[in-house]
Design goal:
The two termini are 28 Å apart. The longest helix has 10 residues. The protein is of the alpha+beta class. It has five helices and 13 strands. The strands form two sheets. The chain has a seven-stranded antiparallel β-sheet with strand order 3-4-5-6-7-8-9, covered by helices on one side. The radius of gyration is 17 Å and the shape is globular.
Length: 253
């Protein structure tokens, strides 16, 4: 997952709304969103290393992950980050306790940003800064830098999440292939041509690009998860899921 926008309103009728794109090499094997074998977790699956980039649980727990882009810090033998999403969704501990325990072993992974919601509290964690964030009401976004970094696509998605726009409007924005001007590009350690390509909300290159766009919402009585899949930039299908969180999930407060 390389771009996540979210709106947090803990006392509103829909506490959490999310719109996100997952970017990956086309050759990496992936399963589209579905209920997993335990029938308790919903999301796409990384079939190469296991785990996931984003998902929901039957109890209304949510987790999503982005990689932090800095080639100089890459560890080729690091543990797969996708397990963090799977582990949080399977657990019943609070978001705060999960991140507290994670801090002691975060160095085993390549750098990441993790967003977790336990049904009551929404928290973010940046492993490269070892920083836990508690978000105020409103719109936020993260890509492959820190949360709410002033990257053009992060700012565009964050601004859009401030409005309760239609599903189609959210998917239309996630499908935008516009490239940011060079003067506004971040410097993350990759060549300029890659900075340009990666600046689009929807990425399309010969070997790498947006594989899935997802719009979801979570409230005490209703969860909705809609994923659109893409193959080399071409629409390949849609999966829709709606369910009521199980009674033992914590109600938003």
């Amino acid at each position: 997952m390389c771009l996540i926008g979210f709106h947090w309103d803990p006392h509103g009728p829909v506490p959490l709304r999310v719109a996100a794109n997952r970017d990956e090499f086309y050759a990496r094997p992936t399963a589209a969103a579905a209920w997993w074998d335990d029938d308790q977790r919903l999301g796409g699956r990384d079939l190469q290393a296991g785990g996931s980039w984003m998902g929901l649980s039957r109890t209304g727990r949510f987790a999503a992950l982005t990689n932090y882009r800095d080639p100089r810090r890459h560890k080729p033998d690091a543990t797969s980050r996708g397990a963090l999403v799977a582990d949080f969704l399977a657990s019943d501990i609070t978001a705060s306790d999960f991140l507290h325990a994670l801090r002691g072993r975060a160095s085993a992974y390549n750098d990441f940003n993790l967003l977790v919601f336990d049904g009551r509290l929404l928290l973010g964690y940046e492993s490269h800064t070892d920083r836990t964030l508690r978000f105020g009401r409103g719109a936020h976004a993260v890509s492959n830098g820190g949360f709410d970094s002033p990257w053009p696509k992060v700012e565009r998605l964050r601004a859009a999440m401030a409005d309760d726009t239609s599903l189609e409007a959210q998917f239309a924005l996630l499908a935008d292939t516009a490239i940011a001007p060079d003067a506004r590009l971040p410097s993350t350690g990759v060549p300029l041509e890659w900075e340009r390509a990666l600046s689009a909300l929807f990425i399309r290159t010969p070997e790498y690009g947006t594989r899935a766009s997802t719009v979801l919402s979570v409230s005490a009585g209703h969860c909705q998860f809609i994923e659109r899949s893409f193959d080399h930039g071409v629409f390949a299908g849609e999966q829709r899921f709606t369910f009521s969180p199980q009674a033992d999930g914590a109600a938003p407060a």
